[in-house]
Amino acid sequence: MSTPYTVRIAEDAADREACFAVRKEVFVVEQGVPQDIEYDAYDAAAVHVLAVREDGVPLGTGRLLYGEAAAAKTGGDASVGALGRLAVAREARGLGVGVALVRAIEEAARARGLAAVDLHAQTHALGFTSASGTRRTARSTRRPGSRTGRCGASCSRGAVTAGARGAVAGWTSAV
What we know:
Elements: E1 5-9, H1 13-30, H2 35-38, E2 47-53, E3 58-65, H3 68-71, E4 80-88, H4 97-111, E5 116-122, H5 126-131, E6 140-143, E7 146-154, E8 169-174
Parallel strand pairs: 4-5, 7-8
Antiparallel strand pairs: 1-2, 2-3, 3-4, 5-8, 6-7
């Protein structure tokens, strides 16, 4: 059974609170990531995307860092954004919400003139990263409550390269 949903940029405080609620449920409650490290200084300037069911219930979220904020996570390359904090509510998994969120973040990156996006994701989500058109790099790191790495895709949906870092797995995607 499919669930109708839409994906949009989080435009106001209520949208951001919905994003944070999904992240809390997935990362803090389900996975045991300490709440004090789940939210960080990057959240204020990030582009957040939100998937919502037609009745307004939030289903998933992700964020895009770009510019100076992303450079710290992408090796200093200002043309590469950093996609992270991708979370899908348990009841929405398997519905394509995660892929839709990645596509929305890639579109937001394209609109900001970025050439690629590094995706930071937990290693247990590697099947998802392959399904979304990215490849995992060989290295992974630890974050309390998770194991992660880095991947990426170019902003043109063309060739994909990959790297790894963080307690999260990563991709690089052309946008």
